[in-house]
Amino acid sequence: MTKKLLTTLLICASFRLAAQTVNQVTDPVEYVNPLMGTASKPSLSNGNTYPAVAVPWGMNFWTPQTGNMGDGWAYTYDAEKIRGFKQTHQPSPWMNDYGQFSIMPVTGKMKFTQDERASWFSHKAEVSKPYYYSVYLADADVTTELTPTERAAQFRFTFPKADSSFIVVDAFDKGSYIKIIPSERKIVGYSTRYSRGPLPNFKNYFVIYIDKAFSISKSWDSKTLKNELELEAGHAGAIIGFKTIKGEKVNLKVASSFISIDQAELNLKRELANDSFDATMAKAKALWNKRLSAITVEGGSVDQVRTFYSCLYRTLFFPHKMYELDASNKIVHYSPYNGKTLPGYMFAGTGFWDTFRALYPFLNLMYPSINKEMQEGLINDYKEGGWLPEWSSPGYADIMIGNNSASVVADAYIKGLRGYDINTLYEALIHGANNEGPITAVGRKGVEYYNKLGYVPYDVNINENAARTLEYAYDDFAIYQLGKALGRPKSETDLYAKRSQNYRNLFDPATGLMRAKKKDGSFQTPFNPFKWGDAFTEGNSWHYSWSVFQDVQGLADLMGGEDKFVMKLDSVFSLPPIFDESGYGGHVIHEIREMQIANMGQYAHGNQPIQHMIYLYNYAGAPWKAQYWARETMNRMYKATPDGYCGDEDNGQTSAWYIFSALGFYPVTPGVDQYVLGAPLFKKATLKLENGKQIVINAPNNSDANRYVNSLMLNGKPYSKNWFSHSELQKGAVMNYNMSAAPNEKRGINKADYPYSFSNDKNK
Fold first, then answer.
1. Where is the Glycosyl hydrolase family domain (predicted)?
2. Cα dihedral sign, 357-72-257-174
3. Confidence (pLDDT) at 423
4. What residues of the chain score a pLDDT lower than 50?
5. Strands, E, within 597-670: which ranges?
6. Lower CB count within 10 Å: N or C terminus of the chain?
């Protein structure tokens, strides 16, 4: 067989596999590729993810570590060496990590620094699953396996025949402690390293049990080996050694705590007990399958199913649990605000600027019980810190803009979550909406100007002022919605209803776009709608002009009516991907580059501000265009491969966009009881709601060509609206789609079929 013929046959086989239809998914976790998005770097993100070995919302994650200690890019697909297996809580490389330490097997010499102990590896000898990771470390001739629980994990090292086999524990720099207890085959310690702070009394305590006696026990400080069994230093670690025979398996049980070593011991005993490695792995796999099976899809290609479940996996991590169960089985947590151990829930590791858009609405639809815990955690954030976090990492992080906790709180309550102190959360929203915080990323920077002028001015040394104005206006709408639901006085809710219209103050009729405004009421000049940064956040006016989630009808009216609004939407895709990077000092940030190379014009799906824009066609009588572009974006921008995202994945948000879009609807306006119509990706999807009801989405003639909704039956009746009601879907629903290759330009074109806009709200 010629080389050319063999290559052709292999390519054809690959295409056949990708196109093969999956008719039934019984083991969804096996479709997940945790390496999706790991082929990333600071200058170009294809996800900026790492292969998280964890259970859903677990307190601890684990990842192979290819990067240097302290490098946010902990694991990158093109790396050649692994330096350790790290416990991590990192939400993103840009936020970096907290609560971390690593474990690494070595052989031959007592190599303990990160460069000396590093080993070559290959993806050909790597197995990456959500519940299990395995890799062959070539330099050590050791296979490492690990499997997780919520607060603990098991390791299994398969060693070669060696007189000098070792296990290295690295508690990292910035202050750490280690103690080796050979009589108990145990190592304990803590790490204090974190990236965003301050964090009072912060320690990540850990305990490690090894099922083999140590013949060598040494501590180390930075690059110096010590004979002490106990060491507190700037950079403490341990190395223990023993002889091994070929194929000998050495097992480790590991757990941690933000509270104490004793609590870490308790976590280990509670979660691992007497379980073997395989028993823990089976439990972790079963837990993943339980969570992933909340949605089953049928009639998609192998690639589509892999992408769907890989995205679903990413939505089930952040915010992660910070709480633990004490000896009395009471829920307690370390407070990142005052350093105390206090009762109740606590979560961390998420930025609301990203996740208010689709991740939290997704939890409210499919996993409301975990979001109820998260809402209770927010109450504790407010009580202990005085503010709601906008970026928790794990305390207040001074990054990004907006006051989007308002959206997260309002959407949960309006979507039916109950059983927590919503009035305290409402109080927290009012406090955050009317005060500047101790840092710019809590409360509202520029609130005095905003409340007085109706916008944050360009010329008062407040960066990203136009973006802040638009987000504050939407957040005011969320407060208005929640206030109404809670029966607050009309005089109070009217104030936030009025402020929700502040977006109008930045609309420039001359360009039909949002434009920064000076304190004297004049527009900022010169105006370049392609300029990133400056008045906007990681985007330009073409991206942020659509950030009127609460009143798309009002925005369309400002733009000159439906036809001009649709033309403006079309322009986003037809414009060239030109940009002005001067707002970043001439530096082309990775978000700009990702837009430029995507071949979708000014549509920058790799970042959050514009991700809802596709669905706005539904508000102006052109729903088929939303159907087309949603499918295009799914096809072009997502794949379950190391380069499978088109920008930062961002704590489940970009994945949640895909999940919603694949189901055929999207939460354009969190805080409103509606999902806006797209078109389903699969021939069938079944959503098993926590209340026992099901949503069944049937589209039997769906295909790559048949991407348009010709007609739709909801619960056996013709349905013409461009939206679904959350509260109605919670009762259970059957959607029957008739898909077509040509758009139906008569369906969903009446104003009565449009989704919610504040301007059309007769009850305001």
1. 263-740
2. negative
3. 98
4. 9-10, 13-14
5. 665-666
6. N
First-to-last CA distance in the chain? 74
Domain 18-49+295-317+552-756, classified CATH 3.40.630.30, yes or no: no
**What stretch(es) of the chain map to CATH 3.30.2080.10?**
18-49+295-317+552-756
Distance CA 356, CA 362 (A): 10
Count the Cβ atoms, other than its own, within 10 Å of residue 522. 10
pLDDT of residue 762: 87
Quick one: CA dihedral 604, 607, 612, 615, positive or negative? Answer: positive
Strand residue runs (E) in 556-614: none
pLDDT digits (tens, 9 = 90+) for 75-94: 999 999 999 999 999 999 99
- How far does CA 308 lie from the centroid of its chain? 15
CB 354, CB 650: distance < 8 Å: yes
Cβ contacts of 373 within 8 Å, gap of 6 or more: 345, 347
Angstrom distance (rounded) from CA 316 to CA 655: 10
Q: Is 742 exposed, middle or buried (0-12, 13-18, 19+ CB in 10 A)?
A: exposed
Helix residue ranges per DSSP H, 315-402:
352-355, 359-366, 368-385
pLDDT at 203: 98
Q: What pLDDT, on the 0 to 100 scale, is given for residue 764?
A: 85
Tokens of 736: 């029957």
**pLDDT given at position 763:** 87
| DSSP category for residue 262 | H
Coil/strand/helix, residue 174: coil
The answer to whether domain 50-273 has CATH 2.70.98.10 is yes
